[in-house]
Design brief:
By secondary structure, the protein is α/β, with parallel strands linked by helices. The chain folds into three domains: about 120 residues, Response regulator (Rossmann fold), CATH 3.40.50; about 160 residues, P-loop containing nucleotide triphosphate hydrolases (Rossmann fold); about 130 residues, Helicase, Ruva Protein, domain 3 (Orthogonal Bundle), CATH 1.10.8.60. Helix content is about 45%, strand content about 15%. It contains 19 helices and 16 strands. The strands form five sheets. A five-stranded parallel sheet has the order 2-1-3-4-5, sandwiched between helices. A five-stranded parallel sheet has the order 7-10-13-6-14. Strand 11 and strand 12 form a beta hairpin. Helix 17 crosses helix 19. The longest helix has 21 residues. The termini are far apart.
């Protein structure tokens, strides 16, 4: 059975022509000029890949991408636009797009892209990945302080709120707080407060009795019941409405609740962990977040710095994602060439670790050799190449290399070959760089 591709573009001509071309290549296509119909079409059909226009009325393609990825995180997405910019392309990558095509589209290039992406995703089996999180390792001082806090706090029942930009790894920290605690054999339940409409969020959290509302055909246990004895991770809690916040506060205080439409008081033993990319004090000032709930949740407050403030971690994160996607896509890629390493080190990563992960996934999918080269990167990153030949870049590069090497040496207690392993670099390359930079 052929794969179904959904096209969302406000130009009917683009929808029809792209649909006809893809169908002539053996795909099934759906399209709509109304971006608000995207989620309905995704719900009704088994869509294998989504093509989104960037500029559309009412809701832009990147905003729609954010919404789609909350519900369908593994759905491959390609963005298209008649108004290209590196900023838009990188933003799309930040929120989960695998590539970005400029109109008029080279259909041959897009067809190759789609075929490669879909053939790779058929092999993907995320269920084989362990639920236990990967180790927290960093060369960054601020991150190492956070890791120590996590180790100390994990053993307690204290509520924790994790803040930081989107994509910085807040869910990973939450997972460590659970799996490094005595609750690790109990459930770790996650819920994205921004991905569920307000009228359904309470039912998801509290559960409901049969007949509690029109569609309540049978009793449904909520996340509070499912998380009993374990941990509940409330992601994007800054998006929760005030009414639901008040009810959450009661559960925090009393450790008890009722299902919607029910009368029975249910007891629960939950460790609450919350996260947000929003400024909660500002939300409190604007009467958008309850101050009492914030103080209940923030017994411990952990702030994750953005990736641009911990660039020394980029090589090890890239290596981790490379190894992960090698396993998922059954490949044996050894590493990155020097130009790719430079691009990764000097890109500002507005989408943080999530953007780096998406970049590495796309690169692994399209690399058929042993080394990832510039040609395997999403097109928007190739456009960054020219800046690597300026005088300013040369100075910045030398300063950055020196900092990375010194941090790696400190991490490895001065043992050079171990520092080379930390940097994902051949030891001879490290020795040459040290000599050039005057590092003894």
């Amino acid at each position: 059975m052929s794969s179904t591709i959904l096209i969302i573009d406000d130009e009917i001509g683009m929808c029809r022509s792209l649909s006809e071309l893809l169908e002539s290549s053996g795909f099934q296509c759906l399209y709509s000029t109304n971006p608000h119909k995207a989620l309905l079409l995704l719900k009704l059909h088994n869509v294998a890949l989504l093509i989104l226009d960037v500029r559309m009325p009412e809701i832009g393609g990147i905003d729609l991408l954010k919404i789609v990825k909350k519900t369908y995180p593994d759905l491959p997405v390609i963005m298209i636009t008649g108004y290209p910019s590196v900023e838009n392309a990188v933003t799309a990558m930040r929120y989960g797009a695998l590539n970005f095509f400029r109109k008029p589209i080279s259909f041959e290039d897009m067809e190759k892209e789609i075929i490669t992406i879909l053939s790779s995703h058929k092999k993907r089996n995320p269920d084989n990945i362990s639920s236990a999180p990967p180790a927290l390792i960093s060369l960054n001082k601020a991150m190492n302080e956070i890791i120590e806090i996590v180790k100390k706090v994990a053993a307690t029942k204290a509520s924790v709120i994790i803040t930081g930009e989107s994509g910085t790894g807040k869910e990973l920290i939450a997972a460590h707080l659970h799996y490094k605690s005595s609750r690790d054999k109990k459930p770790f339940i996650k819920i994205n407060c921004a991905a569920i409409p307000d009228n359904l969020l309470e039912s998801e959290l509290f559960g409901h009795e049969e007949g509690a509302f029109t569609d309540a055909k049978k009793m449904h246990p909520g996340k509070f019941e499912m998380a009993d004895g374990g941990s509940l991770f409330l992601d994007e809690i800054g998006d929760m409405n005030l009414n639901t916040q008040a009810k959450i506060l009661r559960v925090l205080q009393e450790q008890e609740f009722q299902r919607l439409g029910g009368h029975q008081i249910l007891k629960t033993d939950i460790r609450f962990i919350a996260a947000t990319n929003k400024d909660i004090p500002t939300l409190i000032t604007n009467s958008c977040f309850r101050e009492d709930l914030y103080y209940r949740l923030s017994v411990i407050n952990i702030h994750i710095p953005p990736l641009r403030e911990r660039i020394e971690d980029i090589p090890s994160l890239a290596k981790y994602f490379l190894d992960s996607f090698n396993s998922i896509y059954d490949k044996d890629i050894k590493g990155l060439d020097s130009a790719v390493s430079s691009i990764l080190s000097f890109h500002s990563w507005p989408g943080n670790i999530r953007e780096l992960k998406n970049c590495m996934e796309r690169s692994v999918i399209f690399c058929d050799g042993d080394i990832i080269k510039q040609e395997h990167l999403p097109s928007q990153y190739k456009n960054l190449e020219s800046k690597f030949y300026t005088h300013e870049y040369g100075q910045a590069r030398a300063k950055n290399d020196k900092e990375l090497i010194l941090n790696a040496l400190m991490q490895s207690n001065g043992i050079k070959h171990k520092a080379a392993e930390v940097l994902n670099m051949h030891r001879k390359t490290l020795y040459n760089k040290m000599k050039k930079l005057g590092i003894e």
